[in-house]
Amino acid sequence: MRSGSIFDEQDKLNNLAAPQMYVTQQSQLGFTEYGEKLNGRLAMIGFVSLLVVEILTGHGAIAFLNSL
After folding, report:
1. Angle 54-59-62 from CA coordinates, rounded to 5°
2. Which residues pair with 7 in a beta bridge?
3. Strand, coil or helix: what is 14?
4. What whole-number distance in Å separates Cα of residue 59 and Cα of residue 67?
5. What are the CA-CA distances from residue 45 to residues 19, 38, 49 (Å)?
6. pLDDT one-digit tens code per residue, 30-66
7. Are 37 and 43 in contact (CB under 8 A)?
8. What's the rounded Cα separation, in Å, for the pair 15 and 2?
9. What is the per-residue pLDDT for 34?
10. Alpha-carbon span 39 to 32, nearest angstrom
C-alpha cells in the first residue's frame, strides 16, 4: 500500500477494494465524549440562531413562536 491506496498484484490501483474495518472494545452508548461535544455544539448553534431571529424580527423567541 502506498499513501493509503490499495494496489493489486499488477500494481494497478484497485478502487473497488473493501475498506479496512476497525473494531473497538469500548461501548459507544450513553454519555460519551463525542456525544457530549456534539450536543454542546448543536446547543451553541441553536442559541446563536435564536439571537439572530430575535435581532431580525425584533421579538423574543416566545413572541416569535406566538406570531406563527
Report:
1. 95
2. 13
3. coil
4. 10
5. 34, 11, 6
6. 788 888 999 999 999 999 998 998 888 888 877 877 8
7. no
8. 13
9. 87
10. 11
Distances (CA, A) of 4 to 15, 25, 43, 45: 12, 24, 36, 35
Q: Which residues pair with 13 in a beta bridge?
A: 7
- Give the DSSP letter of residue 60: -
Alpha helices in 1-68 (DSSP H): 33-57, 61-67
| Grid cell at residue 9 | 498484484
In angstroms, the CA 42 to CA 35 distance is: 11
CB atoms within 10 A of CB 38: 11
What pTM value is reported for the model? 0.51
Q: What are the angstrom distances between the C-alpha of 27 and each of 23, 30, 35, 52, 58?
A: 11, 8, 12, 38, 46
At residue 10, the 3 state secondary structure works out as coil
